[in-house]
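[Meeting: bench + compute handoff]

Bench side (C.D.) handed over the final construct sequence. Compute side (W.E.) agreed to return the predicted structure before the next meeting so the bench team could plan truncations. Sequence as handed over:
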Amino acid sequence: MESYKIRLSNFWKFCSYFFIGSIFVLLIESKSYSKAYPSSFADLAEKLMPSVVNISTTQTIQTNSNVLPFQFPPGSPFEELFKDFSAPKERSVTSLGSGFIIDKSGIVVTNFHVIQGAEDIIVRVNGKEEYKAKIIGSDPLSDLALLQIEAKKKFIPVKFGDSDKARVGDWVVAIGNPFGLGGTVTSGIISAKHRDINLTRYDDLIQTDASINQGNSGGPLFNLKGEVIGINQAIIAPGSSGSIGIGFAIPSNAANKVIDQLITFGETKRGWLGVRIQEVTKEIAKIEKLDEPQGALVASISEKSPAQKAGIKAGDIILEFDGKKVNSHRDLPKLVAETEVGKNVLLKIWRNRKMISKKVQLGRLESSEEFKAEQSTVTPTDKGVEVSDLKIYVRDLTEDDLLNRNLPKNTTGVVVTKIENDSPIMFLSENDVIVELQKKKISSAKQFEKMVKNIVSKGEKTLLFAVYNNNNQRSYLTVTIK
């Protein structure tokens, strides 16, 4: 009996030690997890706020709308009296965005689409100090721009972090100027990395659920060390509903390369291979005896390009570029662009169902004829397609328009390029975007012209439009055709 009591006593001692030990372990684990959940972002926000700026730009646009509901016949005495009402009008349009200071001299990073076409740029620091700024470099392809604040004082800069080290699930903080409210702090996590949303040819974006809205463009995405790991660029907002927790930022490492070139040269110098590529589908992979769909299929070669000089041929599949695997055709343009101009690189190519290697000396993209031709494809002076029944001209809405206007990704429609003085659509202005007619989506200028003709031929007099105006405000408007 005595030995039983001793054993029982030892058992309870063991239980108590085990219980205390378990609590100790749980406390340690709880403490380690608590580090991942900051109790407040107040200290971080207070430290970073002076380095984040609000940007407002103005540009003058011309409208040809006749504000009168009628038109006087030529030679009428009233024509001269009321000519000011129907003459082309100029008006200023204001846009809002965000940015951040990277040098104490007042160099500001923002998105290109924030300052595109701007005649005047005002930068607000600390929510109250206003300064004029000028553009010192820009790159539409990466949607980045650099501004110089015109003031002789020292500003507080922020530093870039290593976006490659950022992990999915890490906390992030966004500071910006949504809807012109200024100095707005939001937080969230990195939802995903390496997102390609077909916004630019070099998409490799960070996805975050930190609230980003119109006006946040160009603002910084910080890690908890206060380092910039992303530049807020776009959101997915179905039906212009605002933030739904899906925002995208340009990774700091990719942005840094462009920014360094803009500071050093005032322009970018990207590598150029000179191939037109397409996706390697499952069917193509099967025919070519590849284990899986991978690489970039060369569709054609540019004349006098580095690829042509190196002996690359149409039908080749580029599987590796300068020691880096090409997983899909979207990878190759990014890898080439980030490589130094003039560098000799080794390509691994799948040709005739076997691997070969080719050495290529890269050229410069911006100096190539194909790049120059691509840049001149869409001209602002192009009147587009005439819609005679409405007495307006429209052109197709392009990907550049979506980027520059910060419109929802899947928006389709037409851009108004010219409005005749006797047009029945008095509410429209040049550069307005028409996205629907009679509640049906518009896909192209030609399709829109046919839709209008078809409706008018049926004897319908009232047309219902869905339009984005120059401030990206969406509304439904009607016009009655006589």
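W.E. noted at the follow-up: The two ends are 111 Å apart (CA to CA). C.D. will use this when planning the next construct.
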